[in-house]
């Protein structure tokens, strides 16, 4: 039996995404609470920095960030942290 050289998948990432999507579907009928938004903001920011359309994927998180200064601050902090990491990675 031959083993095709499939690109390394990250199942854990998919698990996290599934979990987040479940949270999002549970909150479909109402606004996100701050703890929920807080859980999602890391992932939201990461996706955004990868060039994903986060407003389409996670509109509720985007909406919450517009309304909530505290979570927006967390978002800014995560974004700063991620951009530092990206700079480190691209450094020669
Ligand atoms: Zn909030």
Beta-strand fraction estimate: under 5%
Q: Into which percent range does the helicity of residues fall?
A: over 70%
Cofactors, ions, other ligands: zinc ion
Cα distance, first to last residue?
A: 42 Å
Précis, in short:
The chain is mainly α and 92 residues long.
Would you kindly provide a written description of the structure presented here, covering whatever features stand out?
With 92 residues, the protein is mainly α. The chain has a domain at 31-90. The chain has five helices and no strands. The chain has helices at 11-26, 34-49, 54-57, 59-67, 69-90. The structure holds zinc ion (ZN). Zinc ion (ZN) binds next to helix 2 and helix 5.
Keywords summarizing the entry:
92 residues; mainly alpha; 73% helix; binds zinc ion; 5 helices
